[in-house]
Specification:
155 residues; mainly beta; five-stranded mixed beta sheet; three-stranded antiparallel beta sheet
């Protein structure tokens, strides 16, 4: 579909077909990926315009999952990317603008896990798994407090 900016190690899709990617130089996205042509080889992309957004620096960790909820009390749903690093939940609001990020304390995660390289949405849940095999953990979305005064809990 498209060439991507270098050094990306985490990504996810939302329900509208936006592909979010994160790495060393920040977070970028490609909107409505399903509307772009597919190519037999990346060689066909030479000379094509860049279709990803300019990278924005946000504090995120391992793999990403999408959360749509009103966590800021604005009366409307916002879209967040979630990730886990060590024992912290990292979140970034990507819609509506402007982008904003939070690093939140957690409870219920295995403290020996450092790299959480797998995240996914399944049915109504958001799940994370560490690269070292400590297990699968479900984020208790109702426990998220963006002020950071209460830890987000995992089951």
């Amino acid at each position: 579909v498209a060439k991507l900016p270098g050094w990306r190690y985490a990504a996810t899709f939302d329900d509208e077909g936006t592909y979010y990617m994160y790495g060393n130089t920040g977070m970028s996205n490609i909107s409505k990926v399903h509307e772009y042509p597919t190519w037999l080889s990346w060689y066909y992309l030479d000379g094509k315009p860049t279709i990803f957004s300019q990278p924005v620096f946000l504090q995120l960790g391992g793999d990403l999952a999408v959360l749509e909820k009103d966590l800021e009390g604005k009366g409307s749903t916002s879209k967040y990317l979630t990730s886990v690093t060590g024992s912290s939940l990292e979140m970034a609001r990507v819609f509506p603008p402007p982008y904003e990020s939070w690093i939140l304390p957690t409870t219920g995660l295995n403290e020996s896990a450092v790299v959480w390289g797998t995240a996914w949405n399944f049915k109504s849940g958001i799940f994370f798994s560490a690269d070292t095999g400590e297990g699968v953990y479900k984020l208790n979305v109702s426990s998220i407090d963006l002020s950071g005064k209460k830890p987000a809990s995992f089951d």
